[in-house]
Write a structure and sequence with these properties.
By secondary structure, this protein is α/β, with parallel strands linked by helices. It has two domains: about 1-135 and about 310-345, Medium-chain alcohol dehydrogenases, catalytic domain (Quinone Oxidoreductase, Chain A, domain 1, Alpha-Beta Complex), CATH 3.90.180.10; about 155-290, 3-Layer(aba) Sandwich (Rossmann fold). Helices cover about 25% and strands about 30% of the residues. The protein is built from ten helices and 18 strands. Strands 3, 5, 6, 9, 10, 17 and 18 form a seven-stranded mixed sheet that branches. Helix 3 (about 150-160) crosses helix 4 (about 180-190) and helix 3 (about 150-160) packs across helix 9. The protein is globular, with a radius of gyration of 20 Å. Keywords: Metal-binding, NAD, Oxidoreductase, Zinc. It holds the Pfam family ADH_zinc_N.
Length: about 350
Amino acid sequence: MKAAVWHGREDIRIEDKALSPLKDNEVTIRVAWAGICGSDLHEFEEGPVFIPTQARDGLTGGLAPLTMGHEFSGVVEAVGKNVTEYKVGDRVSVNPTITHGKRSEYDDIYDGFSFIGLHCDGGFADFVNVPESAVYHLPDHLSLETAALIEPTAVAVQAVKEGGLRFGDTVAVFGAGPIGLVTIAAAKAGGATKVIALDLSDSRLEMAKAMGATHIINSGKEDAVTAVRNIVPRGVDVAFEVAGVQQTVEQSINVTRPRGTMVIISIFAAPITWHPMQLINTGVKVTSSIAYSPSSFQETIDLMASGQLDVTPIVTKKIAFDEIVNEGFETLVSDKTQAKILVTLSGEQ
């Protein structure tokens, strides 16, 4: 089979690779669609960030070089002898987080976690084997193409929960990349009345409007804190930091009302310097979110299937698998008009 294999920074190769032997508790998925994530881009530009290169991952046993891809959907091709909930032909999504617990009895990720597609072979391939516990049935009317967006949307759904967002709240989202855009949609679906999007790119801010932002601010052209405070003088109830730089961390706190909440969703490839007195003087609470609980993943499927959460406008390009490096990774690095690029594998719906 074909697979996009990470060998090192700026070194992803499409190779012929044998599928690993199917374990008794695993499902083989014929991958239909896969999305290129910001964390994938970090590995391409700055890696390794998550990918294990020196020793095998303690949860997955993975070690570079490995097949990337953790946002994907597909059809069940085969099942291990101990699999009970899935059969050949089922249309499915995959929760790529692997934890110490089981989905039925454990609903958190912070007791140690790894990612399919970052810590072991993932969905940038014709086929992939994943644990049954990572697989979720798809409603008949939710297409496999749209289902490739479930994973990043679940990140946003969990972040909105972590922020304690309530109906009527006001929100600022710093960074209108793919995760920022789905966070805007999730905040609107969660009851926010004002959603302020901030970015340096006018084209991405236009996408933010399409995703439900009520106000847009180009923070390269005007002072971000002043502009937000002109809209919400007291400060927003919840701010989401999705840019991953020191300046936006500080700005996110500064636009949040006293005792409000700032949620960090972005990935930082390097440390930043920050003064905690910024919090002590305001009572702003800072929390973070990297993934999602199993229940949040299922809720995201339900929200997308019901139409309450439509994130399809973030897709700006669909490419063939053979184009994943040049038209996928390299395009996302150089062209900031792009948001979510979907890679066509089998292309089934």
